[in-house]
Structure formats: structure tokens, C-alpha cells
């Protein structure tokens, strides 16, 4: 059964920074660059602007209903059965995001470091490690996130420092890439890249004080936005206009540019270790909160035994796409397009319902 009341502000901060912030090092920028071209670095900023009001409304509602997490809040406001239906939709979004993202990372590991190894074997080993970590519970996950956060972020900062000499600022022009309408449209459609912020609300009651949770996740979301925007700007200014949308894993590609002299070769392998460690922690957090959402929907308080079957489901469904191109450009693109309007609009619907009930006047 999940521990309650053990997470502090710093642990909420660390979990959010790792879960959402690692998007700076996966194939998300390549997905955004398909249509926006070299203007893709503006998309996270626009997406965050679109989704921030909705997220603030969710935090406001949770503050009003102090004793509830996001699933309990849904049932309280919309009724038991409608709330469960919306909760199931939330779970589906979380599970599909977990599955598609994990396949994305497996493809990176295979193509970049273990090209001769079978995809299913890499997937099994990766998820096995994630399952073992998730079994430790939310308290251990939060503590592990905090003690490893500085090492992981220091590695990413070091990449920025070492790649600085290869940045050509002129490459971001035209600043809106394909065009301003395209960038604005993609900013709205890709707002779902911050969906994990909403999934984390299942842990709202796990903080020692709910004010710690709100402060931690808000501070982390601002830091995450800065991190992602800075890294995407670097990608746009290191790679030229024509190649940016053809690069599948820009983070790993810029580590190829890093050179520390003739005695230190293949330095990208060092950064791979920190990236891989961050990936493990990301999916440990992700599979735990996804299973937690499922447990809350069906009133399964001791939900941790479900981690094993869900781990197998992740592998089975994650292996379904024929290749990484279909996974990224078809399934993940479609999922983001569906999730974005939901997370932008639905919190306002909940606020209107709460206002209509008179709960907000209290």
C-alpha cells in the first residue's frame, strides 16, 4: 500500500523535474520540428502558456477539497460514475503516454548503444529494473529522485557548457520556422507534453503538507520549462535548418560534438550513463503513479501488486508499433493531439461545476 504524508517539498520538486524535465533529451524535439522546423524551440513555451491556467485551476480545486487527490476530486464534482469514467480516461492517457514514451527510450538505447540486441530483450530488462524500483514505494522513489537530482542535472548543464562553442545563433532564423501560424498551432496541439503534471496530482495527499506539494510542483514546472526551452534553443542553433527535423535524438547527437582532447574520446558514453539513470527514475515514477491512478479509480488501496501485470502490459503494448517512426509520428503525435484539448478545457469544466455547487464560496 502506498505511503501517505512522507513526501517533502524537495522530493516533489525532484520527482517533477525528472519526470517532465527529461523530455529535453528524448525525441520530443524531433517530433516538434517535423512541422515547425527550426521554430520548434518556441513550442514548449507556447504549450506551457496554454496549459498553465488549467493546471492552476486543478491546484486551486485540490486546495479547496483538501482531503482529495485528483481521482477523488473528479468523483466528488461530477458524481461517482461520471467521475470514474473521466478517471478511466485519465488512466488511459497516462498508460498510453507511459507505453509510447518507454518504446521511444528503448529505441534510443538500442539504436545508439546496443544495435545488435533484440528490442524485446532490452525492453524486458529495462522494465524489470523499473518494476523493482517502483516496488519500493513512493517514499523511496521520492528520496531517490532527490539524492540523484543534482548529479543528473549537473551532467545536463555540463553538456550545455561544452557545446557552447558549436552554437550558431543565426541558425534559429527565421525565428518562427515554417511560419507563425504553424508554430502557434503546434503550441496548442502539443500542450499534452506537460500532461505528466496532471498525472502527478494523484500524489497530492502524499506530501507532509499539501502546500508543500503545490509549491514543489509549481516551482518544478517553471524550472522544467526553462530547461526544455534552453535545450531546444541549443538544438535549433547547433543543427542547421535543413537537418533539424531529420535528427531523431538531438541530445545524443550534440554529445557527439563534445571534445575534451585526444585523450578523452567517446565522451558521449559518460553522458549516456546519467541519461540512462534519469530514464530509469522517470519510468519508476511514471509506472507507479499510473498504477496508483488505476487503484484509486477502483478503490484498490493496496495497488502495488498491480505493478507487475502493468509492467508486462507496458512491454506487450509498447512492442506493438512496427518501428520507432510509427510510434513517434503516428501514435505519439495522435495521443498528444487528443490529450491537449482535454487538459486545456476540462479543468475549466470542473471549476464551473464547483462554482455551480457553491463550493468555491466557502
TrEMBL record:
GO terms for cellular component: membrane. The chain crosses the membrane at residues 39-61, 81-100, 112-134, 146-167, 216-235, 270-294, 306-326, 338-356. InterPro entries: Spore_GerAB. It is found in: Membrane. Its main location: membrane. The keyword Transmembrane applies. GO terms for biological process: spore germination. Pfam families: Spore_permease. The keyword Lyase does not apply. It is a multi-pass membrane protein. It comes from the Bacteria. Keywords: Germination, Membrane, Transmembrane, Transmembrane helix, Transport. Belongs to the amino acid-polyamine-organocation (APC) superfamily. Spore germination protein (SGP) (TC 2.A.3.9) family. This is Spore germination protein (Amino acid permease). The lineage of its organism: Bacteria, Bacillati, Bacillota, Bacilli, Bacillales.
Amino acid at each position: 500500500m502506498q505511503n501517505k504524508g512522507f513526501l517533502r517539498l524537495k522530493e516533489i520538486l525532484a520527482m517533477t523535474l525528472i519526470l517532465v524535465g527529461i523530455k529535453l533529451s528524448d525525441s520530443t524535439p524531433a517530433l516538434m520540428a517535423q512541422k515547425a522546423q527550426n521554430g520548434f524551440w518556441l513550442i514548449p513555451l507556447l504549450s506551457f502558456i496554454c496549459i498553465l491556467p488549467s493546471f492552476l485551476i486543478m491546484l486551486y480545486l485540490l486546495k479547496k477539497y483538501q482531503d482529495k487527490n485528483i481521482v477523488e476530486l473528479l468523483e466528488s464534482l461530477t458524481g461517482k460514475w461520471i467521475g470514474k469514467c473521466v478517471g478511466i480516461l485519465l488512466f488511459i492517457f497516462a498508460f498510453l503516454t507511459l507505453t509510447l514514451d518507454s518504446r521511444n527510450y528503448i529505441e534510443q538505447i538500442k539504436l545508439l548503444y546496443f544495435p545488435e540486441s533484440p528490442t524485446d530483450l532490452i525492453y524486458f530488462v529495462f522494465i524489470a529494473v523499473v518494476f523493482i524500483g517502483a516496488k519500493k514505494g513512493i517514499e523511496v522513489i521520492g528520496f531517490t529522485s532527490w539524492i540523484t537530482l543534482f548529479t543528473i542535472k549537473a551532467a545536463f548543464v555540463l553538456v550545455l557548457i561544452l557545446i557552447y562553442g558549436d552554437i550558431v545563433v543565426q541558425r534559429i532564423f527565421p525565428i518562427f520556422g515554417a511560419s507563425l501560424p504553424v508554430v502557434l498551432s503546434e503550441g496548442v496541439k502539443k500542450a499534452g507534453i506537460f500532461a505528466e503534471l496532471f498525472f502527478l496530482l494523484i500524489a497530492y495527499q502524499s506530501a507532509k503538507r499539501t502546500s508543500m506539494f503545490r509549491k514543489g510542483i509549481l516551482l518544478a514546472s517553471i524550472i522544467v520549462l526553462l530547461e526544455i526551452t534552453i535545450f531546444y534553443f541549443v538544438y535549433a542553433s547547433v543543427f542547421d535548418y535543413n537537418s533539424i527535423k531529420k535528427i531523431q535524438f538531438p541530445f545524443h547527437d550534440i554529445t557527439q560534438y563534445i571534445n575534451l582532447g585526444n585523450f578523452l574520446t567517446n565522451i558521449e558514453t559518460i553522458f549516456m550513463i546519467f541519461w540512462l539513470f534519469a530514464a530509469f527514475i522517470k519510468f519508476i515514477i511514471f509506472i507507479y503513479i499510473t498504477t496508483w491512478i488505476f487503484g484509486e479509480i477502483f478503490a484498490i488501496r493496496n495497488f502495488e501488486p498491480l505493478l507487475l501485470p502493468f509492467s508486462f502490459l507496458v512491454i506487450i503494448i509498447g512492442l506493438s508499433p512496427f518501428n520507432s517512426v510509427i510510434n513517434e509520428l503516428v501514435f505519439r503525435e495522435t495521443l498528444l493531439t487528443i490529450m491537449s484539448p482535454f487538459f486545456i478545457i476540462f479543468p475549466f469544466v470542473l471549476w464551473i461545476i464547483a462554482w455551480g455547487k457553491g463550493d468555491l464560496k466557502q
